[in-house]
Amino acid sequence: MKSLISILLICTLLISPAMVMAAEAGPVTGTVAETIDSGGYVYIRLENDVWIAANTFAVSKGDKVQYSGAMEMNDFHSKSLDKTFESILFVSEAGLVNNGSAAKPMAGHGNKGTPLQKTVTAEMPAAGEIKPLADGKTVADVFAESGQLKDQVVSLNAKVIKINKAIMGRNWITLQDGTGTAPDNKLLATSQEVVSPGDLVTAKGTVITDVDLGYGYKYKVLLEEATFSPGKK
Asked: What angle do CA 84, 70, 107 make, to 5 degrees?
């Protein structure tokens, strides 16, 4: 639960300068007054005028829901809705309450009623396993040349190590190519596209540098708005 809240906070802070407030463990039960589906999330206004946001699941006005693991954000602006919430709770678990008992909480990645799945990872590639793109960069290059590459579009061959899907309207993809020394041997990319752990890809995106997302998460380099195609020479 704590790790999911951390991921939500990272993505939320990347999109909006909203202020993070205290966490609420729950569980809390309420009646739905309004729902909005957008960007892989369902935004729910309860009858007490509290807004919550959860991974999309099937819910309608009048339903009773139960949630837990809430983290409050003040003045949060949703780009997909073009709406600013004075206060909203991002929750790690939410589900319908049936006959007085809570249903199994749902936290699907954009699929209604799909339970949260464990993160799947692939083995990192060995040095020399992935041939560098002839007119591109390597992961090591991106880190070593980050100052010069800031705000520039780069391409590289890499292996998808991990993907976290549909978090605040983006997929978060970890790339490695066997170059670089830890911690500068893996590159985090954000994308609207879906790839799978183990895929060999050519990734193309914009380099952003010195990213402080708050909550203890800092990145020397991120690859934004990445697109993917099968790995090439």
From this structure: 95
Domains of the chain by start residue, with CATH: 2-102 (2.40.50), 139-230 (2.40.50.140)
Tokens of 31: 């009646």
The dihedral built from the CA positions of residue 187, 188, 192 and 193, taken in this order, carries a sign that is: positive
The conformation of residue 171, written as its DSSP 8-state character, comes to E
- 100: Cβ–Cβ under 8 A, 6 or more apart, which residues? none
Q: Which two tokens stand for residue 202?
A: 């050519």
**What is the model's pLDDT at position 79?**
79
pLDDT along the chain (233 residues), means of 10: 45 44 65 89 92 89 88 80 87 78 41 41 92 95 96 97 75 93 93 93 95 66 95 77
Query: Which residue's structure tokens are 């309608």?
Result: 60
Fill in the DSSP letter of residue 62.
T
Q: How much is the pLDDT for 188? A: 94
pTM above 0.70, yes or no: no
Cα 33 from Cα 52, distance rounded (Å):
12
Do 35 and 43 touch, CB atoms closer than 8 A?
yes
Which residues make beta-bridge pairs with 49?
Answer: none
Q: What are the structure tokens assigned to 115, written together?
A: 């339970």
25 vs 71: CA distance, rounded Å: 9
